[in-house]
Amino acid sequence: MSQQKTRRPRRRSALVERKHAQARQDILEVAAAIVREGGIESVTLASVAARLSMTKQALYHYFPSKEALVRGLVTALVDDEIETLIAAIDDAESDAVVLGTLIRAFYHHYIGNLGAFRAVYCQSQLYSGSGSAMDEDTVRNEINPRTRHLFDVLEQRISTKVSKAERARMRQLAFTAWLSALGLLTMLGIADSVKDPLIHSDADLLNILSSVFNDAAGQRRNGGGE
Question: For the domain that residue 109 is a member of, what is the CATH number?
Fold first, then answer.
């Protein structure tokens, strides 16, 4: 009696893989556009499928649920942010202004698209305990490595000719500068949602934050840190 050969699942060709990746990219770009127009709450499988003239069933081939779509979208938005910030850091005219450049780049990246900012930084808190929140695996395996890369780049740029211990302090300073930019956008997002602008102008706040962190980094590089 002859034994039947077990059939191995067929691997998709490189062309099929490229088409699949391009379709996912198109879906995420449409989802990002919907976020810009109406916020993360407006992103549904139905709304994205309609923009692409697809059926929801066809969309399931790329994202099996709304939660999967939102996770993919947030990861793509983080990628876009990190690329923007690293490009700004690379273009900074000198090491002395890198942290101020980081703060300004973060501000300009999100100020015209607060929906994207809320999707990345607020939805986990808003939807904690529901299926819409970011899962731990996505945060650990997708988001955290991307942010670590940003701070690796920052540390390398602002920590030339300093000791190993001082490099760690400079990295903490860079992280705090990024947190200050995140805090500013959070306050601006709140002000926008209740139609109550902040008393201080965006330009003044950016100038102060940039000056504070640029000066702090300069003091550490010159041996004046605590």
Answer: 1.10.357
